[in-house]
Amino acid sequence: MKDGWLSLLTVVVLGVACSCSKEVTPPPAPQTIQIGGSDAQVFQVKGTVVELKLAANTVRIKHEEIPGYMPAMTMPFEVKDLRELDKLEAGDPVSFRMIVTENDAWIDQVQKLNAPVNTNLPTTGPFRVVRDVDPLDIGDLLPDYRFTNQLGQAVNLHRFRGTALAITFIFTRCPLPTYCPLMSNNFRETQEALLRMPNPPTNWHLLTISFDPEFDTPTRLKGYAETYRYDPRHWSFLTGELIDITAIAEQFGLLFWRDQDGSISHNLRTVVVDASGRVQANLAENKWTSDELVEELVKAAQGKP
């Protein structure tokens, strides 16, 4: 009888344990198609149109989370055929297909939806303390800011006086190949081109600044840097106080914000500062190439501190 009660108790306990377990459903795997002999991932996405830029073949959309790939955010998407954007206006809810290859991304099959999707137009997100700073124009001196690099070391910008700088802004969780990864790939190609150049300048340095300091700790930045084969003698990955990151970003026209759901939205900027510490070039968005940046840095290295 005692053994019977133990068996019954075991069954009851197991039954309770089983009823409390929760099966986790993995995110759906993206479809894979062949484009030009290469694999491309295809994601079905919904969002809300924020802005149409027909001259640039782009539409800015606030999209929902793409499970297993990218958090919800607001960003511009390229279309190959402008007819995809016919009869669309800001505020329209849409569904679309996002196609991602190793080095490119675009959308197609854009359809206007009748019912609104569960998303909102961009807001400034939670309040943050900011400085009142002036925009930096070509020829302006780069102010001094204090950051922390991927090795946990303090870095002040004034220490680079006499060095040509290229500065860009990213966050490591950004997966789309035509945005933050493109900035990092371009910097990697720039580094490699300068290092193998015959009789190159030696006074140049690349700075990649994260605008997601809560997540992008020095340890995470070091791991990210290693995936791009960075040379710490010529390339630093920086984090720091959000008030400093916001200030320098806004001075160059780089805007980033957190939406109400916590997702990060941003534009793109890459800046060249000459060896005298003055702004030489401000490259908007993602159309510039590593060859152009190499040319700018070679020129910038000739500036006199």
Cross-sheet strand order for the largest sheet: 8-7-11-10-9-14-15
- Rounded to an integer in angstroms, the radius of gyration calculated over CA atoms is 24 Å
Could you please say which CATH topology of the largest domain applies here? Answer: Glutaredoxin
Strand pairing plus helix content: what structural class?
alpha+beta
| Low-pLDDT runs | 1-25, 117-129
Which CATH architecture of the largest domain is right?
Answer: 3-Layer(aba) Sandwich
| Shape call | globular
Order of helices and strands: HEEEEEEEEEHEHEHEEEEH
Number of domains: 2
What is the topological layout?
Blueprint: H1 2-20, E1 31-35, E2 38-53, E3 58-63, E4 73-78, E5 93-100, E6 105-112, E7 146-149, E8 154-156, E9 164-170, H2 180-196, E10 204-210, H3 218-227, E11 235-239, H4 242-251, E12 256-258, E13 264-266, E14 269-273, E15 279-284, H5 290-300
Helix pairs in contact: 2-5
Observed structural traits:
single chain, 305 residues, six-stranded antiparallel sheet, globular, 2 domains, OB fold (Dihydrolipoamide Acetyltransferase, E2P), alpha+beta, disordered N terminus
Description:
The chain has 305 residues and is α+β, with helices and mostly antiparallel strands. The protein folds into two domains: 31-112, OB fold (Dihydrolipoamide Acetyltransferase, E2P), CATH 2.40.50; 146-300, 3-Layer(aba) Sandwich (Glutaredoxin), CATH 3.40.30.10. Helix content is 22%, strand content 30%. It has helices at residues 2-20, 180-196, 218-227, 242-251, 290-300; strands at 31-35, 38-53, 58-63, 73-78, 93-100, 105-112, 146-149, 154-156, 164-170, 204-210, 235-239, 256-258, 264-266, 269-273, 279-284. A seven-stranded mixed β-sheet has the order 8-7-11-10-9-14-15, sandwiched between helices. Strands 1, 2, 3, 4, 5 and 6 form a six-stranded antiparallel β-sheet that branches. Strand 9, helix 2 (180-196) and strand 10 form a beta-alpha-beta unit. It is globular. The protein starts with a helix and ends in a 5-residue tail after the last helix. The model is unreliable at 1-25 and 117-129 (pLDDT under 50).
